[in-house]
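Class, look over these structure tokens:
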Amino acid sequence: MAVVFGMALAETASAQVPSIPRKAKTTTTTVQRNSEVAWGTQYDWLSTRYATYDDIRNYDRGQIRVLKNSIYARHGRKFKDANLRNYFSSQSWYRPRYNEVPPKQFNKYENANIAFLKKYE
């Protein structure tokens, strides 16, 4: 039986993607705000500063997966994975537009945070 988000596939139909608490902004950073990116979300901090181990140390792999994919979602990526698609579709700010988002669309924080979160996913 395959395992998804730490659960057997049979359990995923009723499983909910865990909620990620909003991080308090700890530094003032000026970031060029692309009008194509959804702002005003609990994931904005991933676009304005580098994520650290302290940010994610209490998160499970599923929560880290959501964090990483939130960067793509904020840029309008469409998700093939049903769990991610259902979770982000339930967010009022999510506007799926692209099958893939080119890496050049991400700012330096987003690129670094994607790479960082992949290590823990």
User: Anything to note?
Assistant: The beta strands are 3-4, 7-8.
